[in-house]
Every structure is written in C-alpha cells, then in structure tokens.
Amino acid sequence: MFAKVVCLVLLCMVVVAFPPHAEAITCGQISGSLAPCLGFLQGGALVPRCCYRVKSVVAAARTTNDRQTACRCLQAAAKSFPGINLGNAAALPGRCGANIPYKISPTTDCSKVR
Hints:
Blueprint: H1 2-17, H2 27-33, H3 38-41, H4 48-60, H5 64-80, H6 86-95
C-alpha cells in the first residue's frame, strides 16, 4: 500500500512540475479559422459562423506571443487578399462582441501588442 501512495505522489509531482505544453497559435490556424469572414472583409454581410470563429481565435491567443503572432498574421492576410475593406477589418472584433488589445490595421505595431 505504501508503494502505491509513493507512486501516486511522484506522479502528481511530475504532472505539476511538467505541465502539458501549450502549442503556439499559427498563421495557418488563424487563416483557416477566419475564412468564413472573408465575405464581410470584402464588403459583404457578416455571418454568424464568422463571429464564432473570431471568438475562437481570440480565446486561443492566450499569451502575448500568441496575440503578436495573430496581429502579424492578420496583417499578412490582409495584404494577400485583394479587396479587403480596412474599415470592416478594424470593426470585425467589435461587431462580433470580441475584445482584442489592438486595432486590426496595416499600421498597427504588432510588437507592442500585449
């Protein structure tokens, strides 16, 4: 019985000392998640699926590094898709009820995002 208790305590110590590694957010994840928003970003209607995805990206960007990566990815995506309405891009989080600590804009300094 004592050996089982010792094993359990050691297992708990390992789990606490080495928590599961959280993966960093990637541009691929962001681009894929926000694909339903492309119509709105090009001047079309805002669809509910887009807002669901915006909120999921915001929730996934937990760390400063994640938020800076998301900022840079959004800027790169805006440059790669023709016809992006920058006003719609800046308004997207607010229209979806999501709060992000920066403005979606080509002029945003992503290195200052916290």
